[in-house]
Fold Aminotransferase.
Amino acid sequence: MKNMFEKITAAPADPILGLTDDFKADPRTHKINLGVGIYKNEAGNTPILATVKKAEAILLAQETTKSYLGIPGTPEYGLAVQQLLFGADSTLIAEKRIQTAQAPGGTGALRVAAEFIKRQLGDVTVWISNPTWANHHGVFGAAGLDTKTYGYYNAQTKDIDFDATIVDLNQAKSGDVVLLHGCCHNPTGIDPTNTQWQTLAKLCLDKGLLPMFDFAYQGFARGVEEDAQGLRIFADQVPELLVASSFSKNFGLYNERVGAFTLVAKNAEQAIISFSQVKSIARVIYSNPPAHGAAIVTQILNDAVLRAEWEQEVADMRDRIQEMRVLFVATLKQCGVDADFSFIERQNGMFSFSGLNKDQVNRLRNEFAIYIVGSGRISVAGMTKSNMLPLCKGIAAVL
Ligand code: PLP
């Protein structure tokens, strides 16, 4: 028989997950991983949240079947997601303008969104911030969509380049989609202010652009409610929007693949019709979603005691990362670094753009076993009190 796989050439390793493989294979015991965006506690572990363990115990006792879920998952999960995104008393929910499909992680939700855009909205362009999460262009490109970038980051000021954002988005055509990071912009850690969110929402409204939020870090910037402000500002102004949200980080449910694709339409009827297309997309990709992770999230969000405890757990993760930001800046100074790194303290979430170049990133890896993504993005969540000094000494040596 003819060998059909002979012609296949190797795909490039994923820039972030490939780094994790290299890190795991590195025999040096003092190695430090600031690559992938996974929360680590002070001991360098990614523990299961206490509320997740409690919810799982309840589910184990109460679960009666492993039968399939419906294509969009359970209605209870959908409602819990909507309330978390838009607020428990959101008029959008009351007016039935929202529909949610449980999806396999934030990535699964983005992929469903991409397919929905391609099939139902046609050959529009998806505008993506520069820089962005490495997978965005891939996910939208996989659906056959054209992507373009809008300016977002000013490397000199280490802040948002909002003028560039506006100039570039003014080039977008009516019907195009604008992808926004709900909070904790990945990789820069810089989010728009409320005034900037207002300006962006008005721009989308005036130009007829469809906003699409990628919301993977709710609770990691300032608080679960506070972090939804940008999304809610938009929801107040525009008639239609899309959201791909993820519970990988804020529930620590990385490997359970829990996410959601949420659609807001102008009215209940359009929401139902549009959502019927979302269901037919999910049906041919994964048929129906995995149940366990979403059941955990539903259990926690619908139980007042567990929910309060979960919010505290999110606050603890957020506070530890913030503490590491402050300690990082102070320790760099202590290691004789003159360059101003204070911007790290002002940024949100797991990531910051360190400003380290490719050569410096390579030297850190080769000489100090410190793993950072090639773009210079650092995952602050990988820092601990005990790895801080060797980390900062390494950085001081390559600067
Ligand atoms: N969107 C952004 C901005 C992310 O950083 C990530 C994960 O790192 C995702 C989406 C995907 O999340 P999930 O792991 O739930 O697929």
User: Anything to note?
Assistant: The mean pLDDT is 96. The first strand starts at residue 32 and ends at 33. The first helix runs from residue 17 to 25. DSSP finds 15 helices and 13 strands in the chain.
